[in-house]
Write a structure and sequence with these properties.
By secondary structure, the chain is α+β, with helices and mostly antiparallel strands. The protein is built from seven helices and ten strands. It has a six-stranded antiparallel sheet. A two-stranded antiparallel sheet has the order 1-2. A two-stranded parallel ribbon has the order 3-10. Strand 8 (about 190-200) and strand 9 (about 205-215) form a beta hairpin. Bound molecules: 2-acetamido-2-deoxy-6-O-phosphono-alpha-D-glucopyranose. 2-acetamido-2-deoxy-6-O-phosphono-alpha-D-glucopyranose (16G) binds next to helix 4, strand 6, helix 6, strand 8 and strand 9.
C-alpha cells in the first residue's frame, strides 16, 4: 500500500509524468526490497484506478493526460469532424463488422422491409491515439452494402453517396464501464461513462443510422444551448 501511495502521489504531482514508463517489476523489487508479488499488487491497483496502463510486451506506463472536451448537442456532426475541429486526428479500430439478419428492434427503428439485412460496425474511436468511445452502428445494407468501406469515418462514406443524415435524436444516460469497455478505453472497470444512442434521419424522414456508444466520462462534457421561447 505504501508503494502504491508513493507511486500515486508521484503521478499526481508530476514527478512521474504522463506516459512515463514505470521501472520493470524486478527493478522495483530491487529498488524497494519488496517482493515481486507485492509490487504486482501495487501496480495492479494503480491500473484499476486508471492511473497506470499495462500493455502486453511493453510494460507499465503512466496513463496519458487527457483534457476534458466540450461537445455541442445542437449540431449534427461526426466524430471525425468533432476531432478535426479540435486539431486532433480521429481513427477507428474496427472491433466487429459485417452484414447480419436484423434484430426486431433494428427492423422497427430502421424501418426495414422484410428480407432486408443490416450492417453493424463496432468501433473503438480514438483521437490522436487516445481512446474516447466505443460505438456500434447499425444501418440498412441498402445504404451501406459493404461495411469494409468504412475505414475511418462513417459519415464520410455516407456523404460520398449523398446520404448524410440531416437530423438526429440523441438520448444520453449514465452508465458504468464493463471490464471489456474499460479495457478498450484504457480506464478502470466501473468508471462512470456516458451511454449515448443516436437515431439519425435522412431529409426524407427515413432512419439511416442507429448508433449506441459509451463515451469516457472523464473526457466528455456534452453541452446544450438553451433559449427562451
Ligand atoms: C458520432 C455520433 C455517431 C456517428 C459518428 C460518425 C455521437 C454521440 N455519435 O460519434 O452516431 O455514427 O459520429 O462519425 O456523437 P464518423 O463519421 O467519424 O464515423
Amino acid at each position: 500500500m505504501q508503494l502504491q501511495r508513493h507511486l500515486e502521489s508521484a503521478i499526481k504531482n508530476g514527478h512521474l509524468p504522463a506516459e512515463a514508463t514505470l521501472p520493470a517489476e524486478r527493478e522495483l523489487a530491487a529498488m524497494t526490497g519488496l517482493s515481486r508479488v507485492t509490487i504486482r499488487k501495487a501496480i495492479g491497483q494503480l491500473v484499476e484506478d486508471g492511473l497506470v496502463i499495462q500493455r502486453r510486451g511493453s510494460g507499465s506506463f503512466v496513463a496519458p493526460k487527457v483534457q476534458r472536451m466540450e461537445q455541442s448537442l445542437s449540431r449534427l456532426t461526426s466524430f471525425t469532424e468533432d476531432m478535426q475541429r479540435r486539431g486532433m486526428t480521429s481513427s477507428s479500430e474496427i472491433l466487429e463488422s459485417g452484414t447480419y439478419l436484423p434484430s426486431p428492434e433494428e427492423i422497427v427503428s430502421l424501418g426495414l422491409a422484410s428480407g432486408e439485412q443490416v450492417v453493424r460496425i463496432k468501433r473503438l474511436r480514438r483521437a490522436d491515439g487516445i481512446p474516447m468511445a466505443v460505438e456500434t452502428s447499425s444501418l440498412s445494407s441498402e445504404f451501406l452494402p459493404n461495411p469494409d468501406d468504412v475505414v475511418t469515418s462513417l459519415y464520410e462514406v455516407l456523404s460520398a453517396q449523398g446520404i448524410r443524415p440531416s437530423r438526429a435524436i440523441q438520448r444520453i444516460s449514465a452508465c458504468k464501464l464493463t471490464a471489456e469497455q474499460a479495457d478498450l478505453l484504457e480506464v478502470a472497470e466501473g468508471d462512470a461513462a456516458l451511454y449515448i444512442d443516436r437515431t439519425a434521419y435522412l431529409p426524407s424522414g427515413r432512419v439511416i443510422e442507429l448508433t449506441a456508444g459509451v463515451y469516457r466520462g472523464d473526457i466528455y462534457d456534452f453541452v446544450a444551448e438553451l433559449r427562451s421561447a
